[in-house]
């Protein structure tokens, strides 16, 4: 235990990103390990949102639409672009992840008229799967569940598109985006990556890997706030053929012309639908400022170190009392999942002790480590508290 | 002119709703007549949104989802329900108007398998028309444009659903919801009403008229803030057959069970899609408090009186120099549209003089009158300023 204390103190003292925690409004009594579900609020968000209500909305009123708000989906998208390895003009923020998955899957199916199958990673985030099923029904295609390791078994001439998650939300396993993308491309199909559990905390190279389409959540590791809108990546080479099934005025070439027929905007704006949600976009916009000048390799290194240290603590303090589900090697995201038959109750007991993780049915405890604000001390306190509640039965 | 001054002063002095203006954060130098496009901010919104960021998000973090946020779409929907004549359990707030139009049109087409036509009011709000076209493509149905006055010409055995706007956004004309609904029903079809330009400022009787489905915007007369989410009405009798084409986890029977297959929630929640946008829902929730205890008949009476007085002012101060497009009788909403070949320039000149209306191509000036905060003095100053800029050429 002493050794773990020393290790935590030393690692925190030497952490080059430690200064970032002060950017977040976190209760010092709480160990918050659920940033993979809802990121913590950057301090500057509350005041800025209030200012937008009072000044931009209250003083400028309708004039803020052309002056400040209309382009916010693209403007905020440009802040996300470097975090996912996208050159400018290819990321837009609009609607929820579910709605965006719908847009990109329908668009991908439309790009491949002769191919009638949608491959979906069987361990996908549930809402992605529900939406994929609806897309299959509306486009007359067939859903094919797949294990990412065995993609070759299902990919073929009938595959229009494969929807894959970079990080498995239950186990925390990180998939090899380069390898899986190459497999899908070898079959002549397009790949859609769901980046919900990876964007912002590890280097992603969408352009370099020639990924076709991607969608990601902004309220997890990107700290955009509860229900902040998702982002969509459509590379330049596919924008002309991207036909959005939700062609609202937001994606129109001339939205304010109020033209009777839809003509898509030439660039990434065509992935928008209706009126953008300005208060939530503002919170996200401000939250993303924390990434200014950050090196994602350093963020990733800290994420691996934090999760590794947490697993060491769990090994030492809990031993065989609990099972570590998350891969021990580098193929893991920034969460550690543990399995225990009383997972739900344990998460309840931890929460009562101000250690916050989450429960995923039927028996998984998840702990997300946000490299921007979590400490090695957090990891140790979480493991120690877990050991207490497990041994208390 | 003196007479108009006296009329305005008297009407404002006698206005039973005059006390409500103090609820809004409006610059006294500005005459704001664009509440039909973006409502003004109720004073209490800015502080409450900041509080949600600091307290609910910052202190409670993920715990706020089950405690406070998850049901917000239904909770805020219940505040809108009485404004549109809906009994509890039939209104939910989620996504944008465009996305919601998509949901209800697809759902309506699915309810009528043998019928292959979607009738859309030809003067519909453009985004509604774009979405309807996409729905037709995805469901293999045909779009049939119609003039509301001549609905009988197009309704028939092939009609699945008719999408109609209660108020024409260009002319301000108010349509007879009872008559049009009865016509659609006589053809055995379902009607979807777009309430974007009417909700909150006139009595609407969705239940009593047996309207099938409805969608409305919350950032116009409901003052929810820029891009606040729209609402959907699905009456109890159609909920079991409402199949949402955007079946995100938000509409799942057990959203937190993370089940592999989609099972819709039993009630109105099935019209939700992805994660609800809490900051915008909060602003809307607070904005709706202004309606507590308000009589919509009184709101409507003031709207008619304000628009009527404005037209009197325009007649007297501008005469034949401008054309009034909006109906003079009671079949008008709460806006007055004027036609002038220099409409765009005139709106620019008015804005420079702190009188804010808006321009709709090619030649329409629109002035929205929000009965909760506009005054007869606003109407007179707007007409007077317009007369000045018109006579200045």
From TrEMBL, chains A, B:
Keywords: Hydrolase, Pyridine nucleotide biosynthesis, Pyridoxal phosphate. InterPro entries: Kynureninase (IPR010111), PyrdxlP-dep_Trfase (IPR015424), PyrdxlP-dep_Trfase_major (IPR015421), PyrdxlP-dep_Trfase_small (IPR015422). The modification N6-(pyridoxal phosphate)lysine is found at residue 220. Its cofactor is pyridoxal 5'-phosphate. GO terms for molecular function: kynureninase activity; pyridoxal phosphate binding. It catalyses: 3-hydroxy-L-kynurenine + H2O = 3-hydroxyanthranilate + L-alanine + H(+); L-kynurenine + H2O = anthranilate + L-alanine + H(+). Pathway: Amino-acid degradation; L-kynurenine degradation; L-alanine and anthranilate from L-kynurenine: step 1/1; Cofactor biosynthesis; NAD(+) biosynthesis; quinolinate from L-kynurenine: step 2/3. GO terms for cellular component: cytoplasm. Pyridoxal 5'-phosphate binds at residues 97-98, 125-128, 194, 197, 219, 249, 275. Its EC number is 3.7.1.3. GO terms for biological process: anthranilate metabolic process; L-kynurenine catabolic process; L-tryptophan catabolic process to kynurenine; NAD+ biosynthetic process; quinolinate biosynthetic process. Signal peptide: none annotated. The keyword Manganese does not apply. Catalyzes the cleavage of L-kynurenine (L-Kyn) and L-3-hydroxykynurenine (L-3OHKyn) into anthranilic acid (AA) and 3-hydroxyanthranilic acid (3-OHAA), respectively. Belongs to the kynureninase family. HAMAP family: Kynureninase. Homodimer. This is Kynureninase.
């Amino acid at each position: 235990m002493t050794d773990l204390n020393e290790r935590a103190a030393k690692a925190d003292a030497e952490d080059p990103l430690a200064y970032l925690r002060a950017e977040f409004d976190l209760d010092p009594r709480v160990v918050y390990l659920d940033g993979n579900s809802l990121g913590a609020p950057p301090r500057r968000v509350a005041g800025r949102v209030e200012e937008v209500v009072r000044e931009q909305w209250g003083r400028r009123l309708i004039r803020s639409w052309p002056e400040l708000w209309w382009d916010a989906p693209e403007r905020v998208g440009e802040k996300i672009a470097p975090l996912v390895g996208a050159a400018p003009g290819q990321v837009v923020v609009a609607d929820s992840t579910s709605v965006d998955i719908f847009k990109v899957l329908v668009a991908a199916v439309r790009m491949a008229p002769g191919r009638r199958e949608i491959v979906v990673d069987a361990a996908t985030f549930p809402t992605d799967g529900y939406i994929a099923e609806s897309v299959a029904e509306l486009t007359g295609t067939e859903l094919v569940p797949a294990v990412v390791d065995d993609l070759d078994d299902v990919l073929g001439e009938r595959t229009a598109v494969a929807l894959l998650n970079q990080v498995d939300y239950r186990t925390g396993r990180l998939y090899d985006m380069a390898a899986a993308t190459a497999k899908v491309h070898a079959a002549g199909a397009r790949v859609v990556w769901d980046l919900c559990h990876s964007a912002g905390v590890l280097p992603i190279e969408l352009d370099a890997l020639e990924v076709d389409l991607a969608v990601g959540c902004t309220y997890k590791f990107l700290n955009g706030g509860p229900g902040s809108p998702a982002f969509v990546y459509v590379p330049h080479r596919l924008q002309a053929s991207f036909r959005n099934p939700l062609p609202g005025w937001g994606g129109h070439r001339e939205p304010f012309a109020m033209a009777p027929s839809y003509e898509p905007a030439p660039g990434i704006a065509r992935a928008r639908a209706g009126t953008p949600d300005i208060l939530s976009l503002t919170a996200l916009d401000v939250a993303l400022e924390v990434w200014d000048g950050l090196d994602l390799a350093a963020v990733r290194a800290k994420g691996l170190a934090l999760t590794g240290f947490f697993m060491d603590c769990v090994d030492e303090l809990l031993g065989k009392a609990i099972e570590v589900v998350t891969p021990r090697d580098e193929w893991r995201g920034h969460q550690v999942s543990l399995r225990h038959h009383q997972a739900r109750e344990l998460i309840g007991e931890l929460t009562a002790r101000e250690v916050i993780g989450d429960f995923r049915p039927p028996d998984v405890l998840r702990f997300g480590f946000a490299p921007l604000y979590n400490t090695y001390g957090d990891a140790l306190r979480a493991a120690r508290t877990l050991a207490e509640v497990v041994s208390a039965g």
